[in-house]
Design brief:
Distance between the termini: 23 Å
Largest sheet: 4 strands, mixed
Order of helices and strands: HHHEHEHEHEHHHHHHHHH
Strand content: 5-15%
């Protein structure tokens, strides 16, 4: 590595360490995003506040409520005396569900046709669908228990067995921890966002301050300037990857089943796409604000069309086809397969090839455009 290139790299590192805000963004924001998404971005629904209108007030009704209380899906938060109170609690958002037990609940049980009303707040479909499934399972389990007790008291020795028994096995994430799904996505988002934003703003900053012209008139070749500007962010991206992997593994318990060296190498390949986007944005923007907005215009579609938050299979066909233009889509498949499934490169070679082609294509186009602007 020649002295001119080393000088550019050294200059860029000095600039980064002098800019306290940039340094904090590089070191702190990845961890902040990891904790925020690791804890908050979850599909697990627990402790839904439940309002109860028990008009029976009998041991049987209390046994039914104990079944709901025992499951951690619901938290009996309010005991009301009228349906109007239920409407007020759900309308205000204080309660997300309500159960109404009729006055003749005990008699209905005796007749074998007891009915209770269960009301859900459907303004949040994700929580409502999970709560609906949980309420149905709890009521079915309680009904089965009552039927078994009734048969036992009658002296009939009959074992109740369902006609079909489904034995489920969950691979790779047996406890279905949402953080294990989100953290690999956070790695991809951090690599893409930080590399693109920092690269774009660092180049535009040189132009704003007039120092880019000083670099052009020096003996430094265009490719040396490009590599020298990008190399520090490659090193910082590598550090961010190790940082997030370490915190995700040791704090959130995320498994690392694949080859760590392969994970790092493929992460660096994906990092090239972020660097290319940032370099390309720097050729379009004239100010740092414009550079950041340009990067964000590419970042948001990448996040929503990559399977980071929402499954691609649930999207319209047009958006599914559009998602193939997002490099983050391929990286998420790769990183989740390596971390959670521990597969080898053979099973993900199609995604690796697609991501590599994107990285080479974007970086080449950005470097040529940047070099042309320098000339």
């Amino acid at each position: 590595m020649n002295s001119r290139l080393m000088s550019i790299i050294r200059k860029e590192f000095i600039q980064i360490f002098r800019d306290t805000r940039t340094l904090i963004m590089i070191l702190v924001i990845p961890i902040m995003q990891l904790f925020l998404l690791g804890y908050s971005a979850t599909n697990d629904v627990r402790n839904i506040p439940l309002a109860v209108l028990d008009q029976s007030r009998s041991p049987e009704s209390r046994a039914l409520l104990d079944s709901y209380r025992a499951a951690d899906y619901f938290r009996i938060a309010y005991s009301v005396t009228s349906e109007a109170e239920i409407e007020t609690l759900i309308s205000s958002g204080d309660a997300r569900a309500a159960i109404i037990i009729p006055p003749d609940y005990v008699q209905q049980l005796t007749d074998g046709n007891a009915q209770v009303a269960f009301i859900l707040d459907g303004s949040d479909p994700t929580s409502a669908s999970t709560a609906l499934s949980a309420a149905q399972l709890i009521s079915q389990s309680h009904s089965t228990g009552l039927l078994a007790e009734r048969l036992d008291r009658s002296g009939i020795n009959l074992q109740i067995r369902p006609p079909i028994e489904v034995r489920t096995t969950v691979w790779y994430n047996p406890d279905m921890v949402s953080a294990h799904f989100m953290i690999p996505g956070v790695i991809g988002m951090i690599l893409y966002a930080i590399a693109a934003i920092l690269t774009a703003t660092s180049v535009v900053r040189e132009r704003e301050r007039g120092t880019i012209e000083q670099l052009i008139v020096t003996p430094i070749r265009p490719w040396e300037l490009i590599v020298g500007k990008l190399m520090p962010y490659v090193i910082l991206g590598f550090f961010n990857t190790i940082e997030v992997l370490a915190v995700g593994h040791w704090w959130f318990g995320m498994p690392i089943r694949g080859d760590l060296g392969l994970i790092i190498v493929l992460s660096l390949v994906f990092l090239a796409t972020g660097l290319g986007i940032g370099l390309f944005a720097s050729t379009i923007a004239n100010t740092q604000q414009e550079a950041m907005l340009t990067v964000w215009m590419t970042l948001l579609p990448s996040i929503f069309l990559s399977g980071f938050f929402f499954p691609l299979e649930a999207m319209p066909k047009f958006l599914q086809w559009l998602s193939y233009l997002m490099p983050l889509r391929y990286y998420l498949v790769i990183i989740r397969s390596l971390l959670l499934k521990g597969v080898g490169i053979t099973l993900i070679q199609t995604n690796v090839l697609a991501m590599t082609l994107f990285a080479v294509g974007i970086m080449t186009a950005a470097a040529l455009r940047f070099r042309k602007r320098l000339d």
